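Single Protein Entry

Contents — chain, fold
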Amino acid sequence: MSHACCSHDHASASRVANARYRRVLWLALLINAAMFATEMIGGMRAGSVSLLADAMDFFGDAANYAISLLVLGLALSWRARAAWLKGLSMGLFGLFVLGRAAWAAGTGQMPQPLTMGAIGALALLANLATAVLLYAWRDGDANMRGVWLCTRNDALSNVAVMLAALGVFGTGRNWPDLVVAGVMAALAISGGWSVVRQARQELAHASKENQPQAL
């Protein structure tokens, strides 16, 4: 009887935690979607590679939060598959940033530092708010960890964008913007690899649990 009560309490606590996490993901989704639109428009007007890259990152995060909402409460294998997809998207984002930076270096495009700094500061506030919301789930499964890593990397990227704006303003050249783009690419690729690796481990664990036991 006592065991049944404990199981019931555990299930109730799990449902409450999932409901809370779902609300947090919805808030994060709305914040990231709004910042995607803001940075895309601002990045185009400012001619900044790092802002455009950060805008695409916000778009990817919004999509990732949507995926997380879909798989929340499903079996570990499905959550791990979603995390694998998110990790892959983080790595592809890193490659996109590298390509965009190479194009800007070849064309000599000069960004507007004041616009970069203002939008970078706004993006930092948005990501810090999201990071605070997600902090309690930073050590969860691969899916939750992937969400947390995306938000953490975004906040670091925003600081880098603001430093790049200062560098462009001080030097009158575009190389600080390009350096930041490289840093953002490295964060995306390393974070994506970490999530993919943990997701593969969880998939292997789930596969072993689903195998029939020998008599």
